[in-house]
Amino acid sequence: MEIELSLVLSLLFAIQTPAPRPQSPSSGASREPALTVPLRDVVESERAFARLSVEKGQRAALLAFFADDALLFGPEPVNAKKAIDAWPVVSAAVLDREPRFAGVSDDGTLGYTTGPWLRTAKTGEPPAAASGWYFTIRRQQPDGCWQVAVDVGIDSPPAGALRPVAVTVAPRSTNLTATDARGLPGVDQLCARVLETTGAPSAFTARGTDTVRVYRNGLAPMSGRPSAGAHRPI
Fold first, then answer.
1. Average pLDDT value for residue range 209-230
2. What are 203-211's contacts with CB under 8 Å, separation 24+?
C-alpha cells in the first residue's frame, strides 16, 4: 500500500497541477515564490495547521482542519476524527511541520502539501523527539476554506531546520500518455498492472513522472524516476 500510494498520488497531481509562473531570480533559498491564489491558500492552510498544533496541540489542530470524512493513515486508513477521539486531550509532545512541495488541481478544488515534520518534548517532559515527512491532500469547501481529506506520513531522519525554506511548486508533467486523460482510476489500474507484473522499481520507472516522490519508513524521501526506479521494497 505504501509504495502504490506514493506512485498514484504523485501521478494524480502531475496530471492536474498547472505549471508554475515564471519567477524572478531569488536572493535566497528561503525566498517564497509568487503563488497562484488557490495554491497560496493551500500552503497557508497547512501553515495555520502547524501553528495551531504548536500552540494548542496536535489533537486540536486535527479537529479544526480535518474534514469529517478525512482519512488518516497509521498505517491503515481510518476515519481521522474517530481515531482522534482516542487521543489524550493534552499531549506530552509538540508536533510541528512545514510544507516543502505543493500543488493544486486545474479546477482549484484539490491541493496537496508535503514536507518534514518534527515532534519534540514539551519543557519539563521526558524526551519524545521524532521526525519524518507527511503528505496531505486538502479539499476546498463551499465556504472557500481548505480542509484535510487525506493525511499520511512516515518516520525518517531529520530533514534539517523546518524554517525558513521556500515552497517548491510542483511542475506539470509532460511525459504522460494520452491514456492518462482517463483520470486517476485509469492511472491506478495501469500502475497496479505494472506493479503486479514487473514490481515496484519497474513501475516507478515506467509510470512515474519526472517529479515522482517515494516515501518509505526509516528513509529520506526519494525524488525523481531514477531514484524511485532504484528503490527496492523492504
1. 82
2. 203/7, 204/7, 204/228, 204/229, 204/231, 205/229, 207/7, 207/11, 208/7, 208/10, 208/11, 209/10, 209/11, 209/14, 209/173, 209/175, 209/176, 210/173, 210/175, 211/10, 211/14, 211/170, 211/171, 211/173
Query: 182: helix, coil or strand?
Result: helix
Q: What is the pLDDT of residues 143-195, one digit of tens each?
A: 999 999 999 999 999 888 898 888 998 776 555 554 455 566 777 787 788 77
Q: Give dist(CA 47, CA 99) in Å, integer.
A: 8
Residues 225, 157 within the same domain? no
The domain tally of the chain equals 2
Residue entry with cell 498544533: 53
Dihedral pair phi/psi, residue 107, rounded to 5°: -85, -5
- Rounded CA separation 40/34 (Å): 8
Helix orientation angle between 2-16 and 200-207, rounded to the nearest 10 degrees:
0
User: Are residues 216 and 234 in contact, defined by beta-carbon separation less than 8 angstroms?
Assistant: yes
Q: E strands, 85-126, where?
A: 93-97, 101-104, 110-121
Q: Which of 39, 40, 34, 80 is nearest to 61 (CA)?
A: 80
Percentage helix, strand, coil for the chain under 3-state DSSP, each rounded to 5: 35, 25, 40
pTM score: 0.80
- Give a yes or no: residue 60 inside a domain: yes
Q: Are 3 and 60 part of one and the same domain?
A: no
